[in-house]
Design a protein that fits this description.
single chain; mainly alpha; globular
């Protein structure tokens, strides 16, 4: 018996159709609103101190608001990475698979941030003085926090307008490169002043930035093959 009809095209999974995605976006909005309402002046002072290296006012190195913004950043990183993955021309995933991907990517993002913080603390403690170490770690948390804030409008546009994963990757890569460039600038101003320090700065950043990224990339590929 001949079948009547044509084979339909597989439609990529739409994240905006999942209730938990809306919940993540709502939680991100609430976190950003709460932190800026409570700590707006402090954030402005920290941004100013970042670009004027001679100004190092006293503020908490790691407070509750920092923890909230870092958590929000990791949740959105996981959401955008999930968006890129499910937009590929592969068979449709179930809602449970999508949720597992988001938990996996968010967990890796949080692990990446915390692991880098520990490594920075240890390496800087070995090679540099305590004052420089404290100065450095403050901009590190600031950059991660602002990275997450910038991801929020991007997540809204990409998910609700159903844009191509290409635009998501471009925007994510742009923010990631910008964040690392700012870290590079701050490391140069804090630890490696002068042209003679450029060589050591290159070794410092290759070890503490590129190597962890390669490990996370391999780890994501391995867990994707296991969980999905």
């Amino acid at each position: 018996m001949n079948e009547i009809g044509i084979t339909g095209e597989v439609v990529p999974h739409l994240l905006r159709s999942n209730d938990w995605v809306i919940g993540v976006l709502l939680c991100s909005f609430m976190i950003i609103t709460y932190v800026f309402a409570q700590d707006k002046l402090s954030i402005y002072q920290r941004i100013r101190q970042f670009f004027f290296s001679h100004e190092h006012g006293e503020y908490s190195v790691f407070g509750f608001n920092d923890l909230l913004l870092i958590l929000q950043c990791c949740l959105l990183c996981g959401l955008l990475l999930t968006f890129c993955y499910v937009q590929e021309p592969t068979p449709r995933y179930t809602s449970e698979h999508i949720f597992l991907l988001w938990v996996q990517y968010s967990g890796f993002a949080l692990l990446y941030c915390m692991a880098k913080w520990i490594i920075y603390r240890f390496v800087n403690w070995v090679f540099f003085d305590k004052k420089g170490n404290n100065i450095w770690i403050k901009p590190y948390f600031l950059i991660i926090s602002m990275f997450g804030v910038q991801l929020f409008p991007a997540a809204l546009l990409l998910i609700f307008l159903n844009l191509s994963a290409f635009y998501c990757c471009i925007f994510f890569a742009f923010l990631f490169v910008l964040a690392n460039f700012l870290l590079l600038y701050k490391a140069f101003c804090t630890f490696f002043k002068g042209l003679h320090g450029l060589f050591y700065l290159f070794l410092y950043f290759c070890t503490l930035e590129i190597f962890p990224i390669l490990i996370i990339w391999k780890g994501l590929g391995l867990t994707n093959s296991i969980l999905i």
